[in-house]
Amino acid sequence: MPQIYFLCTGNSCRSQMAEGFGKTLLGPDWQVASAGIETHGLNPIAVQVMAEKDIDISTQQSQLIDNDYLQSCDLVVTLCGDARDKCPMTPPHIQRIHWPLPDPAAFDGDDEAKLNQFRSVRDQIETAISHLSKQKDGQ
């Protein structure tokens, strides 16, 4: 079973949403996980905007990068420059992709503007994983 690892700085927003979409869009043939350079806890707004897509990530937990899992992956996706720059070295057979997405939790604005920023990043992640799914299916 192929393994994919979504990585960002704190494993609280972007990589958590990517894990949720990965499990949903890539299906049971893929083992999907996420982690961070640090652990910042699961962001409740990420949970909220994923629920709008009928994807429940509320039981996911913020995790540090597991080097054993990382070394056994087929694909590692970094979702921010920090994760790309600080991700441990991987063997050359592990494919690495970088999706430079803004951190929605760092967005300054009122509650509605923040919510919209989370939705925007969520939608970018959904689109990227949909494309990835089609590539892996040979479409």
From TrEMBL:
Q: Which GO terms describe its biological process?
A: response to arsenic-containing substance
Residue ranges of every copy of the Phosphotyrosine protein phosphatase I domain listed in the record = 2-135
Signal peptide boundaries = none
Q: What is its EC number?
A: 1.20.4.4
- Name the reaction it catalyses: arsenate + [thioredoxin]-dithiol + H(+) = arsenite + [thioredoxin]-disulfide + H2O
The record's keywords, sorted A to Z, are: Arsenical resistance, Cytoplasm, Disulfide bond, Oxidoreductase, Redox-active center
Q: Which NCBIfam families match?
A: arsC_pI258_fam
This chain's protein is named Arsenate reductase
Q: Which organism is it from?
A: Latilactobacillus fuchuensis
